[in-house]
Amino acid sequence: MKKDDLETPALLLDINVLQSNIRMMADYLKDKPVKLRPHAKCHKTPIIAHMQVKAGAKGIAVAKLGEAEVMANAGINDVYIANQVVQQSKLERLAALNEYSTVSVAVDNLTVIETLSKIAVKKNVNVKVIEEIDVGLNRCGVPPGKAAIDLAKKIVQLKGLIFEGVMGWEGHAAFMPDLNKRKEECHRCYKKLVETVNEMRREGIEVNTVAAGGTTSFSIAAEYPGINEINPGSYIFMSLMHRLEGVPFKHSLTVLTTVVSRPTKDRAIIDGGVQTFSTFWSYPKPKDLEGVEVKELHMEHGILKLKDPNIDLRVGDKIEFIPAYPDTTINLHDKFYIVRGENVESVWKIGARGRVD
Amino acid sequence: MKKDDLETPALLLDINVLQSNIRMMADYLKDKPVKLRPHAKCHKTPIIAHMQVKAGAKGIAVAKLGEAEVMANAGINDVYIANQVVQQSKLERLAALNEYSTVSVAVDNLTVIETLSKIAVKKNVNVKVIEEIDVGLNRCGVPPGKAAIDLAKKIVQLKGLIFEGVMGWEGHAAFMPDLNKRKEECHRCYKKLVETVNEMRREGIEVNTVAAGGTTSFSIAAEYPGINEINPGSYIFMSLMHRLEGVPFKHSLTVLTTVVSRPTKDRAIIDGGVQTFSTFWSYPKPKDLEGVEVKELHMEHGILKLKDPNIDLRVGDKIEFIPAYPDTTINLHDKFYIVRGENVESVWKIGARGRVD
């Protein structure tokens, strides 16, 4: 089947670019003492997780317990939930997963940790926990320094739990456009993280994992002494918001649409709106079409503005768009159409779409 | 099961309020010469469509062919796709649907209409078409007046098609906060629509349906002479953006979340972000909680600001939110939890979620 025969809107994944992005990351890390645990919340698709593990990743990270279940069920056996899980019934699901797979979890709250410990003991499993440290994003996590060290001391004493290490996500720093400023702010975050880890070790706590770094900070984190795991996700897709200095990956993800109405010379309507494209951060951009931009996205309509009214765009024509943000765009779709050049090679189900549970 | 036992995030639908909203619309229209064809793109759920039809709706409207397939397969037999369908293979699917159900479609392009005519003749079906007229939204549709009349004349001559009538969606007018201004602008739109219909009729064209009106303009449209069908959708849910003067429905839709982290006195983190809440138009608001607002939504985290740092909000506490916009929030979820008071009564699958095809 040819790309242009697809019914639209359709989420396209260019397999050559995807593989090249995965290889590029693996090559970069080959001789470094840093491991890759890519974030799978962006792709939500077991087959892609398996490709990443085959290329050398030590496991994967996910954002939700539901995603972890999908990945564990698909045979990925080292999954880290980089998020807080607190409900009793969810902690039971988490412990149950650990009966046949290794699924670790981020923690920042002693009551939750104690509950998880009791459940793990009852189920006779050991659950790895990673302490989330707030390095400056101001979201979840315990403050670096004393609070983090005190909590770690308590965790190591609890049965059914393995204190695996720490994570600090420098999300507020990772999108600074200027590479030097980004580096500076990331370093400020990593310093807090690594100093806390050093202190933990001085106090006799074993810290295996020290994780940080996303797609726009992967190399900054990987080259910072003391960090031994990075968690980038979007590098495999590289959408609009990741196009920053020092981020070398190429666009593999696009959305194919069809022009469904041409009411005026300067306006064309496509069959994709906010149920097709995430508007998180910005509108999508046409991939190979100059002089055309998205003016508005309604529910199921995209309104394009044609800067040059002589552009020959007809009802039925196809337009491919690069989405602004992969995670939220992929979550709107049920499947990827895998394309190689103009050919559609396969259809991959997005197995964990919507699994925010 | 109690509401508070649900794993979160969970999409809740209060069945009492849903039924009351449906009844309120039916009561309002009882003695009027206007029919209701509610838009199902907001709920995407056959059982709700059946409730609406049982309450007197003449059929339902949808935004996509994929949604029409779900509804027709669930036994809704008068479905109108209030959107342009242009791809050859999709027009074939549309004609095929008409072999066992009545599925009409909006049109604004002669080439597409001629293609549909040929396909319908070949399949030996008659497809009802509704001409979309651009009454001022500047999206799809033909201009009112001569262009619209000329196209109608051509449609009535084509085999396999039934010219059913016209639709004009006054989307740009329907959200004016001031009721009088909203009325004024809606009337301007309806005037163009009805005058065009009158001219069509003078030229001997039979026009059955003259459709306009959404949740914020349903009564303005229903009371405008010449309009005989309204297409509101969100009235059954009534989310934040529909809270305008003259819109009497109550909130039936909420999202239940859990506090997963309490890092500081003035900050709480919930387990719902932009994969749980649509940010289209605005952030969600807590339903029964004063002094707490959504400060940021990340992918899977919601960051709440506590105006009063003495609010006793703990890890594990549940918070219910009213989403800003139902259509795009529901599209992120796979099911409704049907609640009556504090009890969870049923789980309804959102059958057409993601069916943008």
How does this model look, in words?
- The structure is a homodimer of 357-residue chains.
- Chain A contains nine helices and 17 strands.
- The two termini of chain A are 36 Å apart.
- Helix content of chain A is 29%, strand content 25%.
- Chain A has helices at 15-29, 46-54, 65-73, 88-97, 110-123, 146-157, 179-202, 218-222, 326-330, and strands spanning 10-14, 35-36, 60-62, 78-84, 102-107, 127-132, 161-167, 209-212, 229-230, 253-264, 267-270, 285-286, 292-297, 302-306, 318-322, 335-340, 343-349.
- In chain A, β8 (209-212), α8 (218-222) and β9 form a beta-alpha-beta unit.
- The longest helix of chain A is centred in the middle third of the chain and has 24 residues, at 179-202.
- In chain A, the strands form two sheets. In chain A, strands 1, 10, 11, 12, 13, 14, 15, 16 and 17 form a nine-stranded mixed β-sheet that branches. An eight-stranded parallel β-sheet of chain A has the order 2-9-8-7-6-5-4-3.
- Chain A is an alpha/beta fold.
- The first copy, chain A, has two domains: 3-9 and 249-349, D-serine dehydratase-like domain (Lyase, Ornithine Decarboxylase, Chain A, domain 1, Beta Barrel), CATH 2.40.37.20; 32-234, Alanine racemase (TIM Barrel, Alpha-Beta Barrel).
- The first copy, chain A, is elongated.
- At the A-B interface, β10 of A face β10 of B.
Q: Layout of helices and strands, plus pairs?
A:
The structure is a homodimer of 357-residue chains.
Chain A: E1 10-14, H1 15-29, E2 35-36, H2 46-54, E3 60-62, H3 65-73, E4 78-84, H4 88-97, E5 102-107, H5 110-123, E6 127-132, H6 146-157, E7 161-167, H7 179-202, E8 209-212, H8 218-222, E9 229-230, E10 253-264, E11 267-270, E12 285-286, E13 292-297, E14 302-306, E15 318-322, H9 326-330, E16 335-340, E17 343-349
Parallel strand pairs in A: 1-16, 2-9, 3-4, 4-5, 5-6, 6-7, 7-8, 8-9
Antiparallel strand pairs in A: 1-10, 10-11, 10-15, 11-14, 12-15, 13-14, 16-17
Helix pairs in contact in A: 4-5, 6-7
